[in-house]
Amino acid sequence: MADVAAVADPILKIDKLSKIYPGGLKALDEVSLEIRRGEIFGLLGPNGAGKTTLIGAVCGMVRPTSGTIHAFGSDLARNWRGLRSRIGLVPQELGFDMFDTVERQVGYSRGLFGCAPDRGRVEEVLRSLSLWDKRGEQIRKLSGGMKRRVLIAKALAHDPDLLFLDEPTAGVDVELRRDMWRQIDTLREQGVTIILTTHYLEEAEEMADRIGVIDKGRVLLVDDKHAMMRRLGRTEARFTLADRMDVLPAYLDPFGLTLDPAGTTLCYRGGDGTGRGKQEVAQIARLLTQQGILFTAIEQRESTLEDIFVDLVENGVAA
């Protein structure tokens, strides 16, 4: 029974964590969050939402004002040194000795966490990120994308169980971004738990198992990605009319349609991510045809994670 309980326990548990900076800025406002072992968790929020402060608190770079953090079942404040060695961080900012070589920097990072020198492991990490051919290069000579790969290599050098990726693909071209997605997939297969922040919402939609949205230091929502899409997703459709319509007819009232000011476009937004929206769009099309209302085009789309994120942030929806 003990083993089962251990598997069920969260790898990271944050409870009512707050951070108030001198001057009164509240960067975190009683944030509570649980991260499951082995998952990829997408933490989304606009600039200044508190994402980097939250990561800094877990990684020991920010001292919380109040609240607790438990990692691997232990209080992080009481056992920081032992627990921190099991946590990796790929920060937003590039932080290197630019005149050092790639291999030395990655090996040095391994030593920082008390790991014995292991050139074979360093080689394995560098090869997995297509950096082995650059191992003797000074970091200052690398492209921006390659420098970001070195950041990831440094974070992986001590074999963390929990890895934070803070905007890991910022400034990286599409090809390198896809390579990093594949690397993240490999890490997941190896059992590494990953917390990902990103401005590329399609990245979170592609990679994450669960999504959390944070704004103004407060968590607005945490949910399974697919459940969130079903619950908050919507269908949008625009019917381009052949002739101007002055007033919406009563038979269309149940669908909540709106008419554009020109009277030539009917706009629908509804459903709940279960397919009901598509069914209602089809019903509207049939009704218009039956009533002799001609339309020349239908544009239809389903909500993306980006749509849901923008709605949550703009409307201030709370969890």
Note down, in words, how this protein is organized:
With 319 residues, this protein is an alpha/beta fold. Helices cover 35% and strands 26% of the residues. It is built from eleven helices and 14 strands. The strands form three sheets. A six-stranded mixed β-sheet has the order 6-7-8-3-9-10, with helices on both faces. It starts with a helix and ends with a helix.
Keywords:
319 residues; alpha/beta; Rossmann fold; Alpha-Beta Plaits; 2 domains; six-stranded mixed sheet; four-stranded antiparallel sheet; 11 helices; disordered N terminus
Residue-averaged pLDDT:
86
Poorly predicted tracts of residues: 1-7
Straight-line distance between termini: 33 Å
Tell me the total number of β-strands.
Answer: 14
Under CATH at level 1, the class of the largest domain stands as Alpha Beta
If you consult CATH, what is the topology of the largest domain? Rossmann fold
How many domains? 2
- Portion of residues in helices? 25-40%
Task: Present the secondary structure layout.
Layout: H1 2-8, E1 12-20, E2 26-35, E3 40-44, H2 51-58, E4 66-71, E5 74-75, H3 80-84, E6 87-90, H4 102-112, H5 119-128, H6 144-156, E7 162-166, H7 174-189, E8 193-197, H8 201-207, E9 210-215, E10 218-224, H9 225-232, E11 235-241, E12 258-259, E13 265-270, H10 276-290, E14 295-302, H11 305-315
Parallel strand pairs: 3-8, 3-9, 6-7, 7-8
Antiparallel strand pairs: 1-2, 1-4, 4-5, 9-10, 11-13, 11-14, 12-13
